[in-house]
TrEMBL record:
Residue stretches spanning the membrane: none
Swiss-Prot/TrEMBL keywords: Transferase
Keyword Transcription recorded: no
Gene Ontology biological-process annotations: fatty acid biosynthetic process
Signal peptide: none
Family, as annotated: Belongs to the thiolase-like superfamily. Beta-ketoacyl-ACP synthases family.
Cited Pfam families: ketoacyl-synt, Ketoacyl-synt_C
Protein name: Beta-ketoacyl-ACP synthase II
Length: 427
């Protein structure tokens, strides 16, 4: 029997995955999500949580079954994160209240939202114009004082750290749409440096509300194809017109391979590479030469110690915006070359929408499930190919395939790009 492998090809502690959890608009848990993904079912629907009259976009992949009647982005994000983390920690077999490592949580930026602002204004008792002083006075009365904790950026992570008993100061982070992947990257680095034997890495986002829809609409980033919600998200199609907002969370339990072997844990896969590259070109747009995207992909492969020929499948960022899909295709072709025309690539955002802060973590879970199940989820709604993107996007129907290594891409507003390499094998 071969000796267990504890280090990667660079002599660093090998990072294993021993637990995964996920929740999206497709359902709660890995089994429900995987069944829906591989059947090509969409979780995108007309928004019922709040009035949408007058909005350009009236659809989203909201997680309504978690109970959004008291909707508030930090509260819902925490509920989603707790659900995903509970599944992941349970699968890992580590103690749920005494987790032996660090916590890294990707959370959406927080601010007092319009429902709370209105409640605060009403509590001020002013019939006319409400001043800032009026709002401050009202905020010190009744239940409003609790909002100071609710709308602090680090509150979700603090609550999760208490619940799961993680060690050290919990880390909250937000790197736009690459946040979930960044949380995993931080966990990898902590284990490689020997700072912790394990890490609980979470990406969560429950921030679909009217104000968010308006802001993204002002950037012309959202699809306005509202008539048939499940057909609106069209990554890589010529008639794509923007992304659809989604909600969800995913959690991964990372451990050093030595720690996992020592306690007899089942290893679900490995995260063998992570690459990032910042892009100062624009607050929302990517650099037109694709250099930062190319650099992030190349850095992930270099960190994994593999060449582009070793990638069997690409879990695309694939938002469905005209610019992003073209940029991602260009970056992949630059690094992988003509072979990229035959490497399967698909976007689960066609089914769950763009889960924003959670996306990188959600897609890491789906990437590992692709490896373990031998099935590649499709890109649905692909009926009008874009000749400028000559890729095998696994159109409309899932595909059985032997997949050993996956490149999972996450590209965020503000030029925050993070790519992960996930593998069935240690290297």
């Amino acid at each position: 029997m071969a000796e267990p492998t504890y280090t990667d090809r660079f002599g660093r502690p090998l990072v294993a995955v021993t637990g995964m959890g996920v929740i999206t608009s497709l359902g709660e848990g890995k089994a429900a999500n995987w069944a829906a993904l591989t059947s090509g079912r969409s979780g995108i629907h007309r928004i019922s949580r709040f009035p949408v009259e007058g909005l350009r976009t009236t659809i989203a992949g909201t997680v309504d079954f978690e109970g959004a009647e008291d909707f508030c982005a930090p509260k819902l994000s925490e509920r989603l994160a707790t659900t995903a983390a509970s599944e992941a920690v349970a699968q890992s077999g580590l103690p749920a209240g005494d987790f032996p490592g660090a916590l890294f949580v990707a959370v959406p930026p927080v601010e007092i939202e319009w429902p709370q602002r209105r409640a605060l204004a009403e509590a001020s008792g002013q019939a006319g114009d409400v001043t800032y002083a009026d709002l401050l006075a009202a905020a010190q009365t009744g239940d409003f004082a609790a909002w100071h904790d609710l709308f602090l950026f680090g509150t979700v992570a603090d609550h999760l750290a208490d619940r799961f008993g993680t060690k050290g100061s919990p880390i909250s982070l937000s790197t736009a749409c690459s946040s979930g992947a960044t949380a995993i990257q931080l966990g990898i680095e902590a284990i490689r440096r020997g700072e912790a034997p394990a890490a609980l890495c979470i990406g969560t986002d429950g921030s679909v509300h009217a104000e968010a829809l308006i802001r993204f609409s002002l950037l012309s980033a959202l699809s306005t194809q509202n008539a048939v919600p499940e057909e609106a998200a069209k990554p890589f199609s010529k008639n794509r017109d923007g992304f659809v907002m989604g909600e969800g969370a995913a959690a991964l339990v990372l451990e050093s391979a030595e720690h996992a072997h020592a306690r007899g844990a089942e290893i679900l896969g490995y995260v063998i590479g992570a690459g990032e590259k910042g892009d100062g070109f624009h607050r929302t747009r990517s650099s037109p030469d694709g250099a930062p995207v190319i650099a992030a992909i190349a850095a992930a492969l270099e960190d994994a110690g593999i060449g582009p020929e070793a990638i069997d499948y690409v879990n695309a960022h694939g938002t469905g915006t005209p610019e992003n899909d073209k940029m991602e295709a260009m970056g992949l072709m630059a690094v992988i070359g003509e072979r990229m025309q035959s490497v399967p690539i698909s976007s689960n955002k066609s089914m769950i929408g763009h889960t924003l802060t959670a996306a990188g973590a959600v897609e890491a879970v789906f990437s590992l499930m692709t490896i373990r199940e031998g099935v590649i989820p499709p890109t649905i709604n692909y009926h009008v190919p874009d000749p400028a993107i000559p890729l095998d996007v696994v159109p409309n129907t899932a595909r059985e395939a032997r997949v050993t290594r996956v490149l999972s891409n996450s590209f965020g507003f503000g030029g925050q790009n993070t790519c992960l390499v996930l593998s069935a094998e240690p290297g």
